[in-house]
């Protein structure tokens, strides 16, 4: 088993940014409500400090590694989540960059499979070299899996699933009204 890789060290800033979007309207309301008083700094600290700690914990808990047949993504400290994504199911590895990502030279990676409408996994903040490594490993392992001799032999040799005598096929058709 290879060593696990973490997200970029700046990932907690992007996690804070994502979480802070939820608090924009309440923060503006609290700022206007506390106008003329000096208590708004205390209320801001009570909101920002736990928000930053949760974002830091989320960013530090995400890890990924390349197994021989799967991309494994682990996340969470308290409620752990482990996702095994087989290379042969991965259809695309997308790179998404917003303005903040471009400023720091970082990328959000989305792993898409053919099995669902949603993205299978998201690695929020990785470097360009990590994206190149993910793409190289995923598509190299997927191509190697397609070229394995045991899968080619199994595909070349057809196997009989059900063999019925002609008499039974005829009786089945008569019983079910299919002549």
Could you write a compact summary of the structure shown?
The chain is α+β, with helices and mostly antiparallel strands. The chain has seven helices and seven strands.
Describe the structure.
With 179 residues, this protein is of the alpha+beta class. The chain has 7 helices and 7 strands. The chain has helices spanning 11-20, 24-33, 40-61, 99-104, 128-146, 149-156, 166-175; strands spanning 5-6, 63-66, 70-75, 81-86, 90-96, 106-113, 121-127. It has a 4-stranded antiparallel beta sheet with strand order 1-2-3-4. It has a 3-stranded antiparallel beta sheet with strand order 5-6-7.
Order of helices and strands: EHHHEEEEHEEHHH
Overall mean pLDDT: 80
Roughly how many Å is the radius of gyration? Answer: 26 Å
- Overall structural class, as computed from helix and strand content, comes to alpha+beta
Tally of DSSP helical segments = 7
Poorly predicted spans = none
User: How would you sum up the global shape?
Assistant: elongated
Strand content: 15-25%
Question: Percent helix among the residues?
Answer: 40-55%
Number of strands: 7
Biggest sheet strand line-up: 1-2-3-4
Largest sheet, in brief, is: 4 strands, antiparallel
The termini sit apart by 59 Å
């Amino acid at each position: 088993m290879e060593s696990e890789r973490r997200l970029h060290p700046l990932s907690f800033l992007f996690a804070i940014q994502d979480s802070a979007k939820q608090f924009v309207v309440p923060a503006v309301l609290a700022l206007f409500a506390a106008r003329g008083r000096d208590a708004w700094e205390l209320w801001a600290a009570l909101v920002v400090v736990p928000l930053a700690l949760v974002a830091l914990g989320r960013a530090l808990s995400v890890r990924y590694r390349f197994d021989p047949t799967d991309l494994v993504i682990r996340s969470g400290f308290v409620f752990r989540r482990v996702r095994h994504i087989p290379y042969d199911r991965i259809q695309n590895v997308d790179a998404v960059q917003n303005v903040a990502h471009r400023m720091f030279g970082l990328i959000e990676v989305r792993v898409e499979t053919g099995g669902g409408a949603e993205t299978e996994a998201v690695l929020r903040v990785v470097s360009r070299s990590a994206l190149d490594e993910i793409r190289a490993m995923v598509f190299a392992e997927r191509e190697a899996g397609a070229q394995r001799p045991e899968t080619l032999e199994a595909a070349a040799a057809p196997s009989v699933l059900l063999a019925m005598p002609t008499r039974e096929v005829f009786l089945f058709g008569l019983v079910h009204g299919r002549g």
